[in-house]
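If you are new to this repository, start here. Below is one unmodified record pulled from the training split, so you can see the exact layout before writing a loader.
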Amino acid sequence: MTHVFQRQISAKMPTAVAGDGVYLIDSQGNRYLDASGGAAVSCLGHNDRDVIEAIKAQVDELAFAHTAFFTSAPAEELADLLIDAAPDGIAMVYFLSGGSEAIEAALKMARQYFLETGEPKRTRFIAREQSYHGNTIGALSVGGNAWRREPFKEMLIESSHIAPCYPYRHKSPDETDEDYGRRTADALEAEILRLGPETVAAFVAETVVGATAGVVPPVEGYFERIREICDKYGVLLILDEVMCGMGRTGTLFACEQDGISPDIICVAKGLGAGYQPIGATLVTDKIFAAPLGVRALCARPLRREPGVEPGRPAAVPVGNRRHVGPLGILRIRAARRRDGNDGGGAGRTCAGWVREQPVAQRRPPGT
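And here is the target side for that same chain:
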């Protein structure tokens, strides 16, 4: 009899006792190929000795320091690593305990930004159908997974959902990728105008859609048009890279391949690689500076207003791993691959999860 409230309550779960690279091992000695690294988490494999030894070393020095009163060397170093690799304009990192919290913080930061800049009517969020942003109330509200939302719909914050960039289902036979991408992106402009630009805070999207739609990269030019529309109407662009970020698509941030910079970007999963719960919400200096009432970047956290403060940040010493952490190891190994020393690498279709379908095999629109 177990007292663990399992995610599959009627299933009898095997007991995992060990990990070995891409394999998990249960108490009966059975080995399981962990082909997707859990839910796209274990990007370094199981039982990576470099990470384990570094975690042990950090616990010997310091395991926890309340972030309302202290910073720490691991937190500073991880933030520097992230900002060094982040899209242009991203300047500050807010650490949390996972992906859903990172999205919740992003939504609250967007709201707080407009409160501080004198546009309090901007309360609406627009996202996409067949998307997933987490299971907390705010994240579920902007998510486009209908069956997950249904039991809680009366509790959710009001959000709009436009069609995803999904050429396999929605591209017309006579459209080019560029034409399709623009038509799909223009649905955002139409929705902003329908709601009233003065009421819209942000557009939320996964750069590469995860499991809800089946690993769908955007067509070329789609996010460039999205960025133009957001800029035109003063709407923030929040990119969710909880699943597709941290090297999973071949670059540390997936949006690098689209040539755009968001206002806020969320990461998790591969950031800790399963060795420690950690997420992060990264923002531009514009977003960071607004709560301070100044235009320049200042070295202090967001001033927290009642009702709009982000969730409790992660206590970072162990979570960020002493010295380079899982993120640092990812970068080192990526450099080795570029130099031809460490074979293979992830592609835009998320480490080979899917292959491009020949045109003749794609579903016609509407099916």
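Two things worth knowing about this chain: Residues 294-312, 320-324, 341-346, 349-367 have pLDDT under 50 and may be disordered. The chain has twelve helices and ten strands.
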